[in-house]
Amino acid sequence: MKEAIGMVTPPAGQIPGIYHRQVGDITVTVVSDGYLMGTLDVLHNIAEEDAQRMIVDAFGPAKGRKTSVNTFLIHSQGKLALVDTGCGTYMADTGGWMMQNLQAAGIKTTDIDTILLTHMHPDHSAGLSDRNSWTPFFPNAELVFHENELKHWEDDAAMARGTEREKQLFFQATREQVAPYKKQMRMFADGDEVFPGVIAMAAHGHTPGHSMFNVQSGNEQLLIWGDIMHVPDIQAPMPHVTMAMDSDPAQAGATRQRVCDMVASDRLLVAGMHLHFPACSYVVRDRSGFKVIPERWQL
C-alpha cells in the first residue's frame, strides 16, 4: 500500500528581483524596487483612450498603467555604486522593495561607496534616509548628483508654484531625504567621470538636472538612461508624449527624441528606471517613432 503524499505548498512570492549584466570588466546589477500603478491623465499629447488601447495592445492592464521601478548596482575597480534608491516608503506598497532585494543579492548598505542619482523625484531618491530617525541608509556613501538638481528642489519660489502634491512629494520629500547626506555630497557636470568607468551625460527636461550614466569598459557600453521613458509602450512609438511631472515638457520630449536617435544609431544597450524589469534593452527606429526590444537573457 502506497503512503499518502503530502500536499506541496505553492510559492507565495516572486524570487528576488535581481539581474546581473557584465559590461567588460564592470558588473551592473539591476535591482527591482517593485512597481507603481498609475493613471493615464499624467500623459500629455495623447488621448487617454488611445493611451489605454496601446497599453492593452501591449498586454498591459485594462485600466491605468503598471510602471516598473528599477535601481542599479555598479561594481567597478573594487568599488560599489548604487544608481537611484527607489520609492522608500513615500509611494504605494508595491514599490520600495529595493532594500530587501539588496539583501537578497548579498549587499549590505554599508558596502556602498557612492550613490549616483539620475534626478531627485521620489521614486528615485526617497530610499536614501530612514523617515523615523532621519539617518542615512547608506552611511558610507557619497551622494552624487547633477549641479542643477538640488538647487531646484531647494528653491522656495519653485516650490510655491507647485501643486500641493508636488510640494509634499517632490520638494519636501527631496529636502528631508537628502539632508542627512549634506556632509557627504558631490555635484557633477555633463561629461564628468562620476565613478570608475561611468560618465555622466546630460538629459535635462524631465528635471533641470536629469542625467544619464554611460557605463564603459573595454569596447562594451551600457547607458543607464534614467527617465527617458516612463511608459515605453507609448513613449517609444510616440516620443512626443510627455509627462505631467516633466519640469520642461518641450525639452523632455526633445531629449527623448535625441537620446533614442543616438542609441538606435549606435545600437547601444540601454537600461531605464521604468523599462520593464530587468530593463536591459535595445531601441530601434520603427515608422515615425521607435521600438524597445528587450535584450535576451545573459548567463
What does this protein structure show overall?
The chain has 299 residues and is an alpha/beta fold. It has one domain (18-35, 66-230, 246-280): Metallo-beta-lactamase, Chain A (4-Layer Sandwich), CATH 3.60.15.10. It has eight helices and 16 strands. The strands form four sheets. It has a seven-stranded mixed β-sheet with strand order 1-2-4-5-6-7-8, covered by helices on one side. It has a five-stranded mixed β-sheet with strand order 9-10-11-12-14, with no helix packed on it. A hairpin with an 8-residue loop joins β10 (198-202) and β11 (211-217). The chain is globular. The protein starts with 17 loop residues before the first strand and ends in a 5-residue tail after the last strand.
Essential attributes:
seven-stranded mixed β-sheet, 299 residues, alpha/beta, 23% helix, 8 helices, single chain, Metallo-beta-lactamase, Chain A
